[in-house]
Amino acid sequence: MKDLANYIDGRLIPPASSGWLDVFEPATGAIQARVPDSRKDDIERAVTAAWQAFPAWSSTPGLERGQWLLRLADLVERDLEKLAQAESMDNGKPVSLARKVDIPRAVANLRFFAAAASQFASESHAMESGAINYTLRSPLGVVGCISPWNLPLYLFTWKIAPALACGNCVVAKPSELTPMTAYLFSELCMEAGLPPGVLNVVHGLGPNAGTALVEHPQVKAVSFTGGTRTGADIAARAAPKFKKLSLELGGKNPTLVFADCDFEPTVAETLRAAFLNQGEICLCGSRILIERGLYARFRDEFVARVRALRQTDPMDENCEQGALVSEAHLQKVLGYIELARKEGGKILCGGGRAMVGGRCANGWFVEPTVIEGLAAECRTNQEEIFGPVVTLMPFDSEDQAVAYANGTPYGLAASIWSQNTSRCHRVAARLEAGLIWVNCWMLRDLRVPMGGVKQSGNGREGGWEAMRFFTEARNVCIKYA
Ligand code: NAD
Description:
The chain has 481 residues and is an alpha/beta fold. It has two domains: 2-249 and 456-479, 3-Layer(aba) Sandwich (Aldehyde Dehydrogenase, Chain A, domain 1), CATH 3.40.605; 253-445, Aldehyde Dehydrogenase, Chain A, domain 2, CATH 3.40.309.10. Helix content is 41%, strand content 22%. The protein has helices spanning 40-58, 62-78, 80-91, 95-119, 152-165, 180-192, 206-215, 228-238, 263-275, 292-307, 327-342, 379-382, 398-406, 421-430, 463-469; strands spanning 2-3, 6-8, 11-13, 20-25, 30-36, 124-127, 131-139, 142-146, 169-173, 199-201, 221-225, 244-248, 253-257, 285-291, 346-349, 369-372, 389-395, 413-417, 435-438, 457-458, 471-479. A hairpin with a 2-residue loop joins strand 2 and strand 3 (11-13). Helix 9 (263-275) packs across helix 10 (292-307). The protein binds nicotinamide-adenine-dinucleotide. Nicotinamide-adenine-dinucleotide is lined by residues 146-150, 155, 173, 175-176, 205-207, 210-211, 214, 225-227, 230, 233-234, 248-251, 282, 384, 386, 412, 452, 457. Nicotinamide-adenine-dinucleotide binds at residues 146-150, 155, 173, 175-176, 205-207, 210-211, 214, 225-227, 230, 233-234, 248-251, 282, 384, 386, 412, 452, 457.
């Protein structure tokens, strides 16, 4: 069993307190490693190292900072297979998915923001009265990046890459449930020779290492992706210190299927939107709203395909549904299925723990589950489950579909399925969501603003949005007339 280490000041070191946390393999339920249970002292060390590195890193030309990110991207790409296996073992996701999506996307994040480092430009505004403004954008200093377990390396790099590209030094805290790829990334930083202190990775629990990072007076901004309740806690701690905050939180995303959709691709893609990564993607469409005329046909075809999903050892090449990330999460998801039953829902397929034999006999698998017959306001249809559980609901008009879609406290993503272009634009304009897809799902362009409204968060990531977040703007106004 391996002991992972923190990466501080260019070195791999154990936690100051000598406390450790077990890391489990969700597919088997077995302990596979230990990760530092870091506390305030470790965060203090990391923040000190980061500030020491800041003067040199922030004055390194953007093009050169970009070259560091490109070097790291090349190393991640070289180790793609090893990282994909580590991600699958840590998270329970199919290894084929980690190979096809998670690790290539980490490479893309690093390359994308490597280019941004040299292309980010300041704005200039000329005034008719004879003056010109220009806006200087400087790095913030030391920033904190806190990432979740569902897309571990993918979201870790999505935060650290723009932060570093802008000239900040970073203290990152990955999820304690899936620390492996962030640890392997630390090793790659050492191999690349990244200057010590530029990136520091401190492992540990949210209320310990996470809170210490958020509250540290010398951490100028916090970029956080995770649950809404955690986001509220972070906001409450950071607000009195006037830190910059980016909060990417939970969702309860609607999928709006109209009777005039292109049936075959709609069923295929809404299935993917519901169950990719076991439904553990913040963008997953977990409430499928279907126009009544199409309801029965859609439901029967959808359920037949859900039944055919292959739930096996995530290490099998053909696995389509892996394990849930932890035993606690397994119990939470099963609890929601029980709640749906109590609320009068009819389970059309799934509905319980899945028993995958062999090596995975004790793994944390849940059968992909489809439920109908629930009211829009019930808890099952209002709260984020974040697992392989979706509900189906018929609607009778465009107005009703929009009302159902908008009728939760969340507003992260939505998708619309229709061949009527006017309707697609009309409905898209009325949806309360940060990301709206039409006849597609999770088609991602890294330049577009990514984030949610209402309880799905605050601020936007992606493209220039991320570069603006990680810099401080100072405007200079010069009168020449
Ligand atoms: P979580 O909030 O439990 O944890 C996320 C990270 O925050 C972890 O690193 C955790 O250790 C840390 N943390 C926990 N408590 C903390 C605290 N009090 N202070 C500081 N840090 C703390 O979330 P999770 O269970 O890891 O992830 C699942 C959630 O993330 C879901 O709600 C999902 O929708 C959301 N998510 C959102 C997006 C998005 O882009 N909006 C993307 C992925 C996941």
